[in-house]
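Page 47, continued from p. 46.
Same chain as before, 78 aa.
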Amino acid sequence: MTSGVVDTRTTLPPLPADLVACFGPHTLVPRPQGKGSLSAAEVERLVAQLKISEWAHDRCGRRLIAFYEALAAGLKGR
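Result:
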C-alpha cells in the first residue's frame, strides 16, 4: 500500500561532460596582465582569441540547445 502521494518528478540525465567542459573557467580568455595600454599587436591577439572563444561557445551553446530539445521531445511522449 502506498501513502497516496505520487512522485511526478522526472529524473533527468546528466549533462554530457563535453557540454559541461565547454563552459568551464578554463575556456575563458584571460585578461591581459600588467599596467598601461596594450600594444596594437596585443590588441590584435586578444581580439583573435576572443573570436575563437566566441565561436567555440556558440557551437557549445547550439549543442546544449539540441540536447535540451531532444530531452524535451522525449518527455512529451510520456
